[in-house]
Design goal:
By secondary structure, the protein is an alpha+beta fold. The chain contains 1 helix and 4 strands; from the N terminus they run H-E-E-E-E. It has a single domain, classed as Nuclear Transport Factor 2, Chain: A. The chain has a 4-stranded antiparallel β-sheet with strand order 1-2-3-4.
């Protein structure tokens, strides 16, 4: 059950990124730390010159995805 929730979460994140048009995904890393915990690191370049970095530490708590911590960084050229 726990691993299924994390797998679904990761699948949804990946699907959202695939829907973005014209982006270059420089880095995409899923680090599964336990059956209820995952770290996600993503770095995406947009055609407009923007760079987006995402780091997320997700955990399954009471049958829901929770976030232990996250970091988002957006910069222009």
């Amino acid at each position: 059950m726990l691993l299924n929730l994390l797998a679904k979460y990761l699948k949804n994140v990946e699907a959202a990124i695939r829907k973005l048009e014209g982006v270059y995904v420089e880095h995409y890393e899923e680090e599964i730390l336990a059956t209820n915990r995952v770290n996600l690191r993503i770095r995406v370049h947009f055609p407009s010159g923007y760079l987006l970095e995402l780091n997320d530490a997700a955990i399954v708590q009471t049958s829901q995805i929770g976030h232990l911590g996250y970091r988002y960084h957006l910069q222009d050229r």
